[in-house]
Amino acid sequence: MVAISFVATGIVFVIAYLLGGKGRYISLYKVLGYAYIICWLSIIPYIGLIPSLWLLVVLVVALQVVMGLSKRRAIIAGAILFCSWLIFFLVLMIIGIAAKKFTDITKRHVDVTEKYMSETERVPEMPVSVEENMGEEPFKIINKLPEDFPDDIPVYKGAKLASTMAIGDGKSLNLTTDASFEEVKKYYKEELKKRGWETTVMEAEGYITIAAYKVKDERGLTVAISGGTSVGGAAIMIIYKD
Predict the structure, then answer these.
(1) Radius of gyration of the chain from Cα atoms?
(2) Are 219 and 241 in contact (CB under 8 A)?
């Protein structure tokens, strides 16, 4: 509190000096120091404004008596200080609101990503006996692109469809291409962003996994790309949920 009072008085002194004041800093501090004592009352609800108004009145009088300013210039100095403090607190408030909003958005992104990752990593429960599986189809393999395949999920140009697998309401798409691993990796990194996906990349030598999600639509997908296969080129697996 003492350090703040020294700094605050210094700011007042500089403004008064620029307006033609001739007093001394220590004299101004002695006068304002007594006024600072009641500033702690500002924390009390409903009466917090009273100490601030009192300090403003004391400030104007002190600038006239100690710094030798005219009443008009003293009021101008007080108005400048009041506006400066007001702008300062407004900036702090805006920063606080922006920080809270950023934290909320980040938390929402993390929650959506964790939710999607937990769903895509979930292993479907397999039947323990043939009898329990009668009339059920836990998964099936389809050798063609699903008719309802989303338009915003990119498929590498010229890639060959190896298979698609449906597991519950989730699906996986397996592709192969003669293009190099680096070309395919670059394509998906850029194309997913172009189509509105936010991405998180996990990469190792010859392998990359891209977790993509759209927070607004609460949708997500995973693209896994591997290179250096025995036949060359790259293999692509796309896992998504309807």
Answers:
(1) 34
(2) yes
> What letter does residue 162 receive in the DSSP assignment?
E
Burial per residue of 63-83, b for 16 or more beta-carbon CB atoms within 10 angstroms, e otherwise: bbebbebeeebbbbbbeebee
First-last CA distance in the chain: 60
Whole-angstrom distance, CA of residue 21 vs CA of residue 178: 81
Q: Which residues pair with 224 in a beta bridge?
A: 209, 237
Query: Cα–Cα distance between 229 and 178 in angstroms, integer?
Result: 10
CA distance 15 to 38: 23
Give, in degrees to the nearest 5, the angle at Cα 233 between 176 and 161. 10
To the question of pTM greater than 0.85 for the whole model, the response is: no
Give 114-136 pLDDT, tens digit per residue: 665 565 554 444 443 333 443 44
Pair type for strands 207-214 and 198-204: antiparallel
